[in-house]
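Appendix B, example 12.
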Amino acid sequence: MIIARQEDVTPKVLDAYKDIENPRLREIVASLVKHLHNFAREVHLTEEEFQKGCEILARMGQLTTDKHNEVVLMAGSLGVSSLVCLLNNGDNGNTETNQNLLGPFWRLNSPRTKNGDTIIRSPTPGIPMFVRATFTDTAGKPLEGAEVDVWQSNFEGLYENQDETQVDMNLRGKFIADANGEISFRSIMPLGYPIPTGGPVGRLLIAQDRHPFRPAHMHFLAFKPGFKTLISQVYDEKDPRIQTDAQFGVTRALIGDFRRRTDKAPADDVKGEWISLDYAFKMEKGEAVLPRPPIK
């Protein structure tokens, strides 16, 4: 494996990895080597730049804990997370999909909540919001019994595990879809918020002269045996940053109608402005597997 010139490096490395037993791993490693080597050649990567890149990768690992994942944050900031999601859903990228990013704040064992009840579990200011979501298969058949997690930020853009003023599991709930495949609940209007900017992702945003904000959204995760677990976010089309999401997560299929209203609300204690959100999800056939919680 003696190397005489730079052109020899790539074929020598590929030859060294050609006997990987797992065919899928062999395919991925070979493609990774080719693309990394072609990238270095295309930009004529300097030794100083290579060292700096290694420092960035190491720093992302150092910043990753059970409460923060800088690597996943960088994948989102480069659009890789959204690309992988769209490649693997919607008939393998051929049709629109309701699938989206999991985000860093999903938790297991959110409180079981009856349809029509509230997910507000401590005093939480904000514009009242009433949500109705339906879950069907791709043919439109209601998916009765689907377990649906919902979670969101508060009026300041904070999730409850980021904010000591909110009780545990505030603005979270787990619902069971009824015979019409429907869940409903009361909440408040969420606010968009900035992603963490204290590490390499923040420096990348500064280099791009981009803001770090995500537009306002609500999370949904639906689980039903026989169907691929639906991980989704529904975004407010009126958010001023709907076109400039720092994580490239907004897709056309997931722009919701967070409708501002002043007519009679579903609850008698609501006076003045309130918001309704109605959204229909479609779930694809597949294996029902819950994701690994990103935080503990």
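The mean pLDDT is 95. The first strand starts at residue 128 and ends at 137.
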